[in-house]
Amino acid sequence: MLLQASSITKHYGVTPVLDGVSMQINERDRIGLVGVNGAGKSTFLRILAGELNADTGSVSKPRELKIGYLAQNGGLQGHRTIMEEMNSAFGPLLEQERHLQELEARMSDPQELENSVRYEALLAQYADVSEKFRENGGFEMKNRVRSILHGMGFGSFAPDTEVSSLSGGQRTRLALARLLLVQPELLLLDEPTNHLDIDTLTWLEQYLRSYAGAMVIVSHDRYFLDATVTAIVEIERHAATRYTGNYSRFMDLKAAAFDQQLKLFEQQRKEISRMEDFVQRNIVRASTTRRAQSRRNALERIERLEKPNSLRQASFSFTTERRSGKEVLRAIKCSAAPKPEMAPLFQNVSFEVKRGERIALLGPNGVGKTTLLRALIDKLPLRSGVIEWGAGVSLGYYDQEQRELNPANTVLEEVWSAFAMQPEAEIRTVLGNFLFSGDDVRKKVSALSGGEKARVALSKLMLLKANVLLLDEPTNHLDLMSREVLEAALDEYDGTLIFVSHDRYFLNRIADRIVEMAPDGAQHFLGNYDEMVAKKEVMKEWESSQADNSSSSVQPTVSNYEADKQAKREDRARTRKREQAEADIARLENELAALELEMASPEMSTDYVKLREKQTEAEQKRELLDEVYQAWEALMEE
Fold first, then answer.
1. What is the pTM of this model?
2. CA-CA distance, 90 to 138, in Å (whole number)?
3. Per-residue pLDDT tens digits for 301-349
4. Alpha-carbon gap, residue 511 to 533, rounded angstroms
5. In sequence order, which ranges of 183-288 are alpha helices (DSSP H)?
């Protein structure tokens, strides 16, 4: 065990944030810490890191435990250069390196060479220090710095670039890069995927999968959690519950647990109702009074289950007022820049959009995805190229920076001023669906959190009823539950979507075509993110085989390429089936465990009819579990 947090409570004023939260972290643990916005995840992480004191409770850990903590948007400050910041992670090693250099200088001194005894002692000392330096990774130090800087997107930056000249997002990325160099035994990361493009995210996932220490990660990136963690701790209603598995497994387990709790609650409610009815009918009859009194006493001893409640969540849908024409958009050889004095970020970007398509714009940070969206809605001029919108198009735009919101307005004023012809009651109903109720609608926009501002912007977008939505990072600032709701709403939307997102889970569910932007043009991929990655792999293999075959004058055929594509499709299908079988196994095992627990309860020892029913149900579950296991084993053998 590396760390034990016991019964942690924390209040801000009279508002409870954490109430008796406990968590144990063992060596090599990979824990994802999840919960809705405001659940206390960042507060709990700060308490674990020693950055904040709990009101009550304790955090126990070995004194020598090295903890690395990355705060949300916690970028490096100061006037050091990038390389100076990275080298500072190797304090003791740098001292050893300086000692080695001093010994080398002495060894080259002619006076030392003249004294053979002293020179032999110097050689022995150099060998000893050099061996320790090697054991501590000193000779790999510079390679590690270069590798991590490249992986975190700083490969093209000059080593003497001052940290103060970087943007806020870049400083946060650099802080994470430095933390990875330190290699603490316990990593505490608060939203480490903020400000990362997909290439950097992929690199970070691979790095963390092989990381030797333990980690606790707060993240709203479901794809990232699936790739990096092996346990989920959910903070809900000020308390924590631990689930084994990644995020997808957690969702299955939580749904199964909720269903089981609801089923047990309903069963108990029916049993209590039956007993109360018996008491009411028989308490006044002389022949049955004693039995009725016995039932009444039994009723009083029952520990009543609370009805499981799911947290209140936003509820909305996007509709269109009218249908657009079939041809929605043509962008031809476009280039643009965010400011007049800047060079274009991209050139020769062309694509077409048909009615009902869902187009994702992808590319590395700084390639101009947001700039292109703003050019499409005429907020920025093109440097070159043509944008042609089709007939009957009505546009709705979601700005990730929420620049369209007036900070001086209240929530109600902000939405009502945009839709002044709507009755106040209707505006309040819409805001209620976005979790603004009662006095919440009188909050100033300037006082809202990032997630609350996002919900205000989405409420305005919903009321607009546009048939083409342009969305710039719509899942930013939203918690996991709100992201699920947004995806469900966009799934049902019958208009056209053009969006920018680094949320690969969102991309997989929503996108049906991807335009990957580069400074000199764009590539087009049919399908979602995973399908794009698979196609890139196939193309890479095909190009590699083409290069190999060209030396022997054997050209790859289209049929080989198609066969490769088909094989990849079949492999992905098998993977999805295996994952579904594993999810079914987990669900059935949980349901079976709950049934066995129920059959072992004292109440069952006297109710043989119900016990027999439960035994029959358990047998059916076991048979079904055996069938799923057989199917899973067959899939694993393929």
1. 0.71
2. 9
3. 888 887 776 666 677 889 999 999 999 999 999 999 999 889 999 999 9
4. 13
5. 198-209, 222-228, 247-282
